[in-house]
Amino acid sequence: MDCGKDMDTKMLKILVCVSGGGTNLQAVIDGIKEKEITNAQIVRVISNNRNAYALERAVKEGIDAVCVSPKDYTDRERFHDALLRAVEEKAPDLIVLAGFLVVLPEELIKRYRNRIINIHPSLIPSFCGQGFYGLKVHEKALERGVKVTGATVHFVDEGTDTGPIILQQPVMVEEDDTPEILQKRVMEQAEWKILPRAIDDIANGRVTIKDGKVRRSR
User: Fold this and answer.
1) Known catalytic residue: 120?
2) Residue closest to 99 by CA, chosen among 27, 4, 207
3) Are 171 and 190 in contact (CB under 8 A)?
4) Catalytic choice (80, 120, 138, 154)
5) pLDDT (tens digit, 0 to 9) for every residue of the chain, 218 residues total?
């Protein structure tokens, strides 16, 4: 399977989903501006949180931004339908989960198979899966006493952090780290670097999946 099929002949349309401040969204925006990401554009930002600063970041950059909140729907099925509609209105080539604290509906994963990627703040398979998100990841890493942590970009499947790994970047843990300090270092040294790199690779046809594993060409 070639995730980059025909991507070198047309602009990759990216849709970013985010729940909070949007620092990884900003890394993607900056990556496009600075041409670290080529052949790609963000066509929409979706948040489940109407107060997410990520929405403001998008608006400031002239990017279409919408909130699809489960609080606005009577049940999960209606919310999932609305989320799917908000995605399909822009017909994206790639969906980027950049701190999106929502379990994706199976129909969305099915329709966009191998076209959804996620950034996770650890070196998968460590400190990942159900319940591991945000600051909790770094708290558990420090509790365990690991000397090296990092971040992972991976494709999304029906599991939690179980899809094929695209890129990983290690980050050293220091003795006086707090979860907040470690979180900041992982973002600066890993997340903000490998997410734009992964998107650029996909946009320029350098990523393929074979036997459940990612192959990257140069």
Assistant:
1) yes
2) 27
3) yes
4) 120
5) 445 444 445 899 999 999 999 999 999 999 999 999 999 999 999 999 999 999 999 999 999 999 999 999 999 999 999 999 999 999 999 999 999 999 999 999 999 999 999 999 999 999 999 999 999 999 999 999 999 999 999 999 999 999 999 999 999 999 999 999 999 999 999 999 999 999 999 999 999 999 999 998 87
